[in-house]
Specification:
GO molecular function (chains A, B, C, D): nucleoside triphosphate diphosphatase activity
Pfam families (chains A, B, C, D): MazG-like
Shape of chain A: globular
Structural class of chain A: mainly alpha
InterPro entries (chains A, B, C, D): dCTP_Pyrophosphatase, DCTPP
Keywords (chains A, B, C, D): Hydrolase
CATH superfamily of chain A: MazG-like
Number of helices of chain A: 6
Order of helices and strands of chain A: HHHHHH
Helix content of chain A: 55-70%
Number of strands of chain A: 0
CATH architecture of chain A: Orthogonal Bundle
Protein name (chains A, B, C, D): Nucleotide pyrophosphohydrolase
Strand content of chain A: under 5%
Oligomer: homotetramer
CATH topology of chain A: Helix Hairpins
Largest sheet of chain A: none
């Protein structure tokens, strides 16, 4: 069996959420994973993304992925934000995709498109 | 056709990302959606989650979903964080699921489980 | 006695810190003012400042004080950040002015000025 | 003249604000110091404070200054938050002490003390 066949399909969100839960459980990290602590960690990771962009002009910010080191850093922080968001959803019993679908529905009513239906 | 058959399956991340992109395009919001602005907005939404929890004890924080109004607020902010994260990934060409899978792989090497394989 | 004579001098930092401590004590808020909660509140207020600027261009951001309502909002959030910073310093026994003076000293060594002494 | 006599009094806020402005000017950093960038940097530093506390219990958070290394880190981040707040006030023409005094005045009306005057 090759490494490739071990990952025959792209990961889905639910599978990643299960991997994260197993990862925390194997290290006995659940006592630290209160909702309060997880939202703090989420906001810290979001700020680490901000830190990459804080002194850039808008134009420079649009080119961050052209530099391989910065691109890696951005992907790494995006992963951290998503990881804590999924772990928060896990401990609170929230379905993030359903929450986002509902929010887009509400926003479509709240901000009608200029030429919308 | 019933409302239920119109949404026969739960939304997937890629479909929600396309809805968000279409939503922004229909309102001509793309000029505002520089990576720099989107990470700022992401961090602001993460802080709105923190605001819900800031004065709670760890125990109270574990019970936030018991109150319907607070539960709605938490789901709403989770949706906002995910929305800006997906829009950031869209403008930067990042696959959030691949980024998270790669990060979990790295973390499994970095933090070996006590009884891990 | 006139209003002016009631405030004969501009407030100093230590006097404001004492007013904040008395304000919290009179309302029995000290149990909520753990260092952990105060840093969370500080970061939430900092994000409320970011929210004012998140969709502005750099040029627009330089003109925020020209609009009286926005100017009031900015001053209000600046005050909130400073209030939580002073309350954090109070509970941790930190002298914020000494901490900043020491930091500037270190930064002057770390980042020598191009034409510096 | 001894080093001690060179600093005969504790630094005041206005003097530190002038030192920060001179420091940035000597390094030609002013173009980066737009209000938008400074509020982003402020929020990043506030999050670095949160990071120190994110996994601590409320009780552990009250004891952070007992460890010299952590105490140094906390003072350092407090200094960074104050530095960016003062630089923001400098570029926007805000008097932070007056803003805070006005805010406490408003809060005293908004949240009357239980046994207040």
């Amino acid at each position: 069996m090759t490494a490739q066949s071990a990952h025959p399909e792209p990961p889905d969100l639910a599978a990643l959420q299960r991997r994260l839960a197993a990862f925390a459980a194997a290290r006995n990290w659940q006592p630290y994973h209160t909702p309060k602590n997880l939202v703090a960690a989420l906001s810290v990771e979001a700020s680490e993304l901000v830190e990459i962009f804080q002194w850039l002009t808008p134009e420079e910010s649009a080119r961050v992925m052209a530099d391989p080191d910065t691109a890696h850093r951005v992907r790494d922080e995006v992963a951290d934000v998503l990881a804590y968001l999924l772990q928060l959803c896990e401990v609170l019993g929230i379905d993030p995709l359903a929450a986002l679908a509902a929010k887009i529905d509400r926003n479509e009513e709240r901000f009608p498109a200029p030429d919308g239906p």
